[in-house]
Amino acid sequence: MEHKPKLMATASRQGQGVHAERIMIDRLSNLPDPIAHHIFSFVDLKDIVRVGCTSKRCRQFHLSTPTLSFNFNEFPDMKKSPCSKRLEVMNSLDRLLAHRRNDKLKRFHIHWVPHNRYVEDCSCDESFRIMTWVYDAVRCEVEELDLDICVHQETPLALSSFMFLCDSLRSLSVNMKCVLKAPPLDSSSNLKKLKLREVCIVDEEFFTWISCCCKCIKELGLHDIYGVQNITIESSSLESFVFQCPGLSAGCNLNISGEKLESLHIYWGNIFLDRKSSLNLFAPNLKSLIWSGSLFSHQNVGKLTCLEKAELSLKVKSGKEFDIIYEILCSMPEVKVLILHKEITKALLKEGPIPTLFCARIHYLQMHIEGLFDFLVPAMVCFFRGMPSLNTLYLKSDQINFHPEARSSGFDAEFWKSQNLAFIKKLRLVNIELSNGSNGIELARYILEHAQNLEKMAIVHSPEQSNAIGKLNESKKAPNAIVVFEEDQERGTRKHGPRAFWLFSRMLQRSLDSIWSLNFDDYGYP
To answer: pLDDT tens digits, residue range 79-105?
Structure first.
């Protein structure tokens, strides 16, 4: 019969000859292994080791726990500790992994900052020790491996491809400056999730390996990678792809092909006009697209007929690039959620009334505009007219008006009423950030008075607009509508600082606009 550890304590009541016996039972030791392991998964490594010293049974728990997380931040005094002190900690982790023998690991996470980042004269060979821990994790048939290592050395660490050959590995995340070579193309992998950050990939064969050998991969993330210019991913299982490499060399050629690809996030950019970059996309079942940064010099996205959500934050440097963006918008006829950031909205509305071939099914629209200026209103009306299904509207605007000379008080609520916008009958949720002038207030008044199905409207305004907001609050509205007013102290045209600061801000804004509008062909750039 298994012995149950008990702690006996006896107490007596004064004045009474009665002895009460209290029995305290070690409940943790009697828990089934799966439940105890689940509890240990929420405890950091330092406390797991401490619990393991309390009893033989708890030691079994801490040696067999399927989740190990070693976070350098748990030991804040190690930053400037002597090498001998850090060596003791590393030896403890060595022993812990060695005593596990072949007990399987579900998840192994390491966050480590090398000693030479804080101490100049350091003889620690910590990179080698970290690699031995990874080998031990692979030996224990780890399923999820997360390496977050801050490498502080001129020569990146060479990371062996042995991890990719681990049959049990399902998820791998590497966040460290290291050199990664492709595994053999005749190997196979059971990886479902791969995330690489600040990794140098020395040859394009690595992406060939992903395409040919990772038959189960569903999520792929490439963040700030370098060393390679041509990236080709062809996968029949990939469902989500993130490519966030704004600093990648100008010659980036990105080719993506995936019939099951549903989510794509691209963030790429270069300050100079680039002729050599390209994007080729084949994703007939894509449902979500986030694209920010810069356009490629050439892009072919095909027809995105299944796309439901699109968020675009692209720099528009010329009329030609606007045509490309408009073509991209027209390639997504079924989009239901559309988020347009400032650069695209600015270019889209300044072109004047344009055909809205991509708007028919949109029910959520978020736009960032500088301000509701008079010269933008006709184009905005045309834009709204193509959205009969719109039920959620979010209009963002700049806190500070850099163009106080622009008129923004020429259109009242009667003008908006005369446009007979179809979406007003379906509008339920509205959020408007008011810029200077009365155009935004009049649009809000029109919505309040005519959106009979309105459920909630939030209006962000400047201190200068408080009086107008008070009158707006008296407008008739839908019986069940909730209206929230929020005063933004930083919003408006009021000069809270020296005039020289605001003049400099406007000059800087115009300088940036002129830089993005440069045609580098005139300056001899290839």
So the answer is: 667 777 778 778 878 887 887 777 788
What lies within 8 Å, CB to CB, of 202 at 6+ separation is 179, 180, 181, 227, 228
CA distance 461 to 479: 23
Orientation angle between helical segments 342-350 and 319-330, nearest 10 degrees: 100
pLDDT surpassing 80 at residue 205:
yes
Beta strands in 53-210 (DSSP E): 67-71, 107-112, 144-149, 157-159, 171-180, 193-201
Parallel/antiparallel/unpaired status of strands 392-397 and 19-25: unpaired
Given a contact cutoff of 8 angstroms between Cβ atoms, the answer to whether 431 and 461 are in contact is no
Q: Is 410 domain-assigned? A: yes
Which structural domain range is residue 408 located in? 354-494
DSSP 21: E
Residue 96 structure tokens? 């812990």
pLDDT digits 0-9 by tens, 243-273 = 998 876 557 899 999 999 999 999 987 655 5
Q: Quick check: 441 and 468 in contact, CB under 8 A?
A: yes
Is position 140 within any domain?
no
Apex 103 CA angle, 98 and 109, nearest 5: 75
Domain count, the chain: 1
- The predicted model gives 171-198 an average pLDDT of 93
CB distance 26 to 7 below 8 Å: yes
Report yes or no on whether pTM surpasses 0.70. yes
Distance CA 504, CA 508 (A): 6
Residue 230 lies in a domain: no
Token pair of 2, please?
């298994």
pLDDT tens digit sequence for 24-39 = 556 666 777 677 666 7
Close Cβ partners of 64 (under 8 Å, ≥ 6 residues apart)? 33, 37, 100, 103
Q: What is the DSSP letter of 27?
A: T
CA distance 359 to 384: 9
Quote the pLDDT of residue 62.
63
- Angle in degrees, 0-180, between the axes of helices 83-99 and 56-64, rounded to the nearest 10: 90
Pick from 100, 173, 164, 188: nearest CA to 136: 100
- 96 in any annotated domain: no
